[in-house]
Amino acid sequence: MIGQLTGLIGQVEADRCIVDVNGVGYLVSASTRTLSVLPMPPERARVLVETVVREDAIQLFGFATSEEREWFRLLTTVQGVGAKVALGILSVAGPGELVTIIGSADKASLTRAAGVGGRLAERILTELKSKVAKMPGGGGMAMASAGPVGASVEADALLALAGLGFRRAEAWPVLSRVMTEHEGVTLDAAIRLSLKELAR
Fold it and tell me: Any idea of the CA torsion for 55, 57, 58, 60, to the nearest 10 degrees?
């Protein structure tokens, strides 16, 4: 099984790329997040890989970080979430954002991913809620958790709002006001109250 490829980045398309390892070009499917951080062809790069063997094909899925690969593995344990849908979810939400989305049962954020309807989003939230605590939350979540509780909630909420498509410049003033007006507010409440104001 292939777990990692190190070679020259060849052609990069919307959902996949070619990694040239000693003259052999491996076709690797990946999220838009991973593809966006790859160097320009033909520069050298390391790509973490999950190999999926089926009766009719051997497919390679690539990841820029081990956290993203772990989330891919977890997402594909949910019935109805195949590799393509999992990559679609990871394209709209990184590991840290997924922790927040699942923790706050944010179905709307999941349905932004290609191939995820309301029913499937509900199933993902239900099946993964008890498993999310053991999952890597990404760099932003890890850094936030090292500070005071209030700072952690604020940083995590800002990360979640960014994942929902709000620019930091527009989300920050609103979130800051919410945190000031509602002392000791929970992460879920901070996101909900901010969204209410941002939607006006």
Answer: -130
DSSP bridge pairs for 46: 6
**DSSP reduced 3-state for 65:** coil
Tokens of 39: 């160097």
What pTM was estimated for this model as a whole?
0.68
User: Using one digit for the tens of pLDDT, what is the confidence trace for 28-77?
Assistant: 999 998 998 888 889 999 999 999 998 888 999 999 999 999 999 999 99
Between CA 101 and CA 116 the distance in angstroms is 14
Residue 16 pairs in a beta bridge with: 29
**Cα atoms in the Cβ-side hemisphere of radius 13 Å centred on 8:** 10
Name the DSSP class of 184.
T
